[in-house]
Amino acid sequence: MSETDADGDAARSYEVAVIGGGPAGLTTGLYTTRLGHDTVVIDRGGGRAAMMLDTHNVIGVTEDVSGNEFLATATEQVKEYGGDVVRDLVTTVEKRDDDRFVLTTNGGEFTADRVVFAIGFSDERPSPPLPRTGRGLHYCLHCDAYMFIDESVYVMGTGDSAAYVAMIMLNFTDEVDLLTRGEDPAWSDETQTLLDGHPIDVIHEEITGMNKRDDGWLESFEFEDGSVREYKGGFPMYGSNYNNELPASLGCELTDDGTVVVDDHRKTTVEGVYAVGDLAPGHNQVPVAMGDGAKAGLAIHKELREFPRSLSEIEANGAVDAKDVPAVSATLRDAAQAFGDDD
């Protein structure tokens, strides 16, 4: 379907537009597509999931599957069910007087009845020298702590979060260093007292060099006092930059830390707008993001589905005519039939 945009060009029209092609966005797109709603997932590429060298904590997905492989499989699933996945960057989103949304991208325009933001956040990276992400530099404690059982681990940072992550890692190993990299600690006095009560070495000297093993994993850091300390890997804790500009431009309420306020169904404070995955409050985990996508997809279906008609609609307009069912577009019907034929 198409509409005409302000310049007279054709704007591609959908019931659901998902911005972001990570686990949350693709799961949303899978649900809304399979539930009979014309859906487009607009993805700029990249993202935290794409950086995963290995996939952890996703039941049914083995460790040797990379983030890119995981996302590629999910993308093909959405396409096979009849959804569109477009590589593009959404620059603006506006709500029209008719309550439909106009999404402007680098490549054109899209319109939709519902918009789902699945654009996550970016981790604040410390200054080099640093090992490769996934080979000694890790951003998800809950995903990667398992691999550091009985290994030497560092945590970088100067805030309370860094201190707490260092103490949490004592659940997995007895060798934990907290690296402030030449900066003054910013954690509270209470946190300092807690640190004093745990067997953690706080290293204040800046890192001046790094050594890697033959397989590319971190081997050790060199410090400005001339010392060398060996580590299997660790966690930088410098905060996150949430990609909340687009939902904020629509008037979506934000939390103090920059996430988008949502209800249990992932609805934002703006009618017709949803936020899922890392952009919403909660644990930053692939399975959690996928659950968010499922919740949003189900909620959107309940809002958009044609049937059952209400009693008042039937009384006003009469019974549903057989020619009006099923309420699925020709595109999705063709995709469903082709999918069934493949089985």
TrEMBL record:
Database matches in InterPro entries: FAD/NAD-bd_sf, FAD/NAD-binding_dom, Ferredoxin-NADP_redctase_2
MF annotations from Gene Ontology: oxidoreductase activity
Domain of life: Archaea
Alphabetic keyword roster: Flavoprotein, Oxidoreductase
Name of the protein this chain belongs to: NAD(P)/FAD-dependent oxidoreductase
Domain FAD/NAD(P)-binding span(s) in chain numbering: 14-293
One Pfam short name: Pyr_redox_2
